Amino acid sequence: MVALSDLPPECIIYILLFLVPHEIARCNMVSRSLWKIINHSPSLQYLLELERLGFMAPHSSSNRLSLDEKVQVLKEKRLRMNTSDPTAMSLNTYDYKHVIAPKFSRSYMSHGVLALDGQNEPNQLGIYQLSSRNRDIGFDHYTLDSLPPHQAIAFEPAFDLLVLYDSTDDGEIFHLRSLRTGLPHPATTLPRVFYAGDNATGSRVAQIDNPVVIIGRRIAFVRCFTNSPESIIKIWEWTSGDTISSTKVLGSSFAFLSEDVFVVRTPLSWTSQSTLPLVVYTCDGIPPGGHARLLARFHLPESRNTTVLHSTELLPASTSPVCHCDALLTSPSLIYDLSPASYYLALNVSLLTGSGGGPGTLFIHSSSLLELACSLNTQLNNDAEASVPWSEWGFITSWIGPPDLKTASEYGPGIFGHLASFMHADEQMNVWRVEVYDLRTTTTTPSELPPKETSHFPRNQEAASFFGDSPRPLKNPALVKSFTIPFETIPSKRAWNPARYRRPMEIMTDDEHVVILLLYIPGAIRY
């Protein structure tokens, strides 16, 4: 019988490629000869670097770079992430760009592409492709002119898909276009889709900021009504136009855990329950166009005498674009991708406390919530919905509270996968501080010890105590990067006219960029 060490190196590498990365790393300790083979194999080093960074190999890998070049890019990224002082972030020349764009009405960002809607003209779209080491592309900008009238957009660069959404009391109109050309998308059989209104209440259709979501092969939209707590969430397949489900829900704030499963935030003002639930639905196993099946209700803690839950809202967050539809991928190939376990939901939570009030963000691990909802439903044999108290699911969440400074302005979070970015004004230092948190890495402080401070600004700990009913300590995401921008670059809030600009700045993020959109100076972008 031939021993493993007697095989040629290429055979050993072939065998090791069948192992998961952490098992490959363990093989480094078996023998000196095996360590040498692993460390001289670009294919094995590539997998190990992905593992160290918490990434996965993409479904569509870049062929323009050799494995050695990919490994080098990953090592450089890891080196910059692992600086001993997270505030000592040096900005290279390719990290910073200042763009002046014409006036626009709405802004969107997805996977390294920024879209400014209503640029110059109501039906014009400005597209800004940000430079990317991961995609091996440079900065690019172009405009899409003479688009159909629309109230909102959604887009997915991985599929070259642009969705233009328009809503009236009669129904919704969707135009499916190419993000590159603005022409009808070649992968869809119906480039224009109309859904007739389904309004039994007689209320007018209400407008909301983010009514459309793309998740893999599917598009979801919510139809809201004035003076009514109910909304309708419709899901359909954009390649065929087939309706998947149509579901009446209480509330209009929703997010997806997978192509089949979504979660809805119940509005506080429309529930008589003592605790506010997040309601999880699934489209799996329902007839075409049917009502999604309720899986579980996940309750937040009850209000207390000193801390009262004022409002909640699910914030727009990134989702994995692939979802078993590799044939639709058209974007530049990647060096690395986020694993499904790297995505989080973000729930904006406003609490009224004895020291005041302010919004914080509860981050919910998407895959854990999905697994918990499905397992509970299986235990009940799909016959009844599960009702889950906070004490039984709080361990899959983490919390970033509001700054505990009355004079501090905070913008964010900008969310992408496991990253969340915030921006604060530090008037003593005359700078803006940008902080990036890794939601996968937490700093947990025992209840008997003072909380560990990671942010430059102290966080409201009275608000954090609201979530202390869980048996496990509340997780606090670790600050992994921080940098400052002088007020000379971005004027301080004293230079703004608050009566004219409701949101003078917006912060967005992805795996490589932090984008700061200055709304008070027409179209200034910095990233």
UniProtKB/TrEMBL annotation:
Cited InterPro entries: F-box-like_dom_sf, F-box_dom
Domain F-box stretches: 1-47
TM ranges: none
Protein name: F-box domain-containing protein
